[in-house]
């Protein structure tokens, strides 16, 4: 189940908010969790511990702390958790951007190992969507590592968000077991909460992208996985371009850091370069390809 505090004066169409709340409740029920806002200090401390466990942060480098969460919540921002039998299995934190409350930046979200594979991350994001629409927020933005295949599919395929900018070394050095020691390039995505594709995705119909069909139609391949697991540059000459990412960049960072660094550089040049030149990322195939359109709209 899910618990959403609704604004009684809703500029956003009431049916859109009601639909979003219904989708959030269905996702939470399917995951066997209760998703709700967090306001108590003890639970805010638990969020910090949860994220520290997920990211395996260095001592003193917890991703968020209790004081920050308290300040964000008290200022009207988004702090929520997913619970089952009294145990916190996931959490999500966001804050308002400019202008005013026109947009929400979703800063961090994570699910514990105990909650993995149940769709809890999806339930958290749908709760955040319902909450934001109730505040008359039309879009949520966040960043993610474009090399992480499962996150790319989740954000673009499961949720229907679309990348708007490639950000080079966005956070600077991060001392945790997930990001490694290299640059922290990120994709900034925008989740247009009331768009037809997002509304469809919210009721469990992913945004489907077929890289093989696009290849058969003549799409170019600017980057692919070589036989040795490293990046292999190709051609970006065409209106539709595919850019690959490795199957498991996190494992590669541990097993072969130099090859992982090579992937960072190659993706920055190919995907980052295409976006800087005006290319639009239109989807992500679960097989590991971003799809970029260079056609003018």
UniProtKB/TrEMBL annotation:
Top-level taxon in the UniProt lineage: Bacteria
Native source species: Amycolatopsis echigonensis
UniProt-recorded name of the protein: GNAT superfamily acetyltransferase
Organism classification: Bacteria, Bacillati, Actinomycetota, Actinomycetes, Pseudonocardiales
PANTHER family: GCN5-RELATED N-ACETYLTRANSFERASE (PTHR41700), N-ACETYLTRANSFERASE DOMAIN-CONTAINING PROTEIN (PTHR41700:SF1)
